[in-house]
Predict the 3D structure of the following.
Amino acid sequence: MRTGDMLKRLSPGRRLGLSSLSVLLAALSLSGCGARSTASDPGAGTPPAMSVQVQIAKPQRIADTSEYLAILKSRHSATINPQVEGHVTKIYVKSGDQVTIGDALLQIDPLKQEATVSSQEAARASQEANVRLAKVNLDRAQKLFDAGVISKADFDNAQTYYDSAVAQLKSLEEQVQQQKVELHYYRVSSPMDGIVGDIPVRVGDRVTVATLLTTVDEPGALEAYIYVPASRAKDLKVGLPVKLLAEGGAAVFETQLSFVSPQVDSDTQTVLAKAAVANSKSGLRISQQVRAQITWGSREGPVVPVLAVTRISGEFFAFVAVKEGNGFVARQRLLKLGEIVGNEYAVLDGVKAGDHVIISGTQFLQDGMPVSEQAAEAGKQAGGESKPGAKSR
């Protein structure tokens, strides 16, 4: 009797049990076949190696540099403050004007001072008349004393009065001269040749000796004031190379330290260092803030391409191809980076010379993933900068 006819004659419960048994036997049979297949192919569960481009990290001479904020100041600059108080009555120049020494800049109301000078001159004229009268009286007393008409005491009084009048006249003359000099201060003049800066005051403003009127700056030569943390004070010395950097990081001027302060600023805990800036083309301006890069020295160290570095949560990482067993695997390294040298980072820690740094496909890599290195020519076509020594494995 056939199997199908036998199943039809069985009760529904028995037919369900036999069907389940058949399914179980079939599953065991397939499992055994899979186990035999896996045993015969040991590499069936291993993912294929990912082809990557590597670059061998080589030691390179790296400059030890630091960047600080610097402020440019004129080496020949004058801050103009009035020497007297009063109201501004006239401004002779405007910002940006070229002036020479002695040129008038502003006029402060001199009326009160002119009145003082006139009063002093009148007092001097009056005293001059007193001196002339005292001289006449002295000459008369001299003749009378010689004739024996007056006593010696009377003659001495006449002499004393004349001497007192002369001394008082001299005092008044000095006062008049002083007031005239002070009157001269009401006309503010340029103390040097240069360019007029900002003029914050207006006609009618009252100014005091503490009021800033304007500045006069000699064009050209500047000086960079660099504020270096006190922790690097021991390394500061005159002659260290300095580069002034533009926004993009390019050097706009190269110079060297010309002055290092012997003191530390108590408020900012910084040391002032200065560097002369010729600025012959006047590309830099007074009071401009720039970045100053000080070169402390140089050292040997490995570099890695910028494209090989990834940043995760503020930390920098790179993948390195490491030989493990019969192949290579990608290992992620935490890096401590220095300055950028061209298109490469200087590595302070994490990669050593001779490591095979992976420079392509890093976004698809995971730590421990099998990799195979591409030939150097393939890496160039992919846009990477290959180095001699990157061989296919």
About this structure: The chain has four domains: 3-30, 50-61+300-381, 67-76+216-298, 84-214. The helical segments are 3-9, 12-40, 111-147, 152-184, 376-381. The chain has five helices and 22 strands. The CA atoms of residues 141 and 155 lie 6 Å apart.
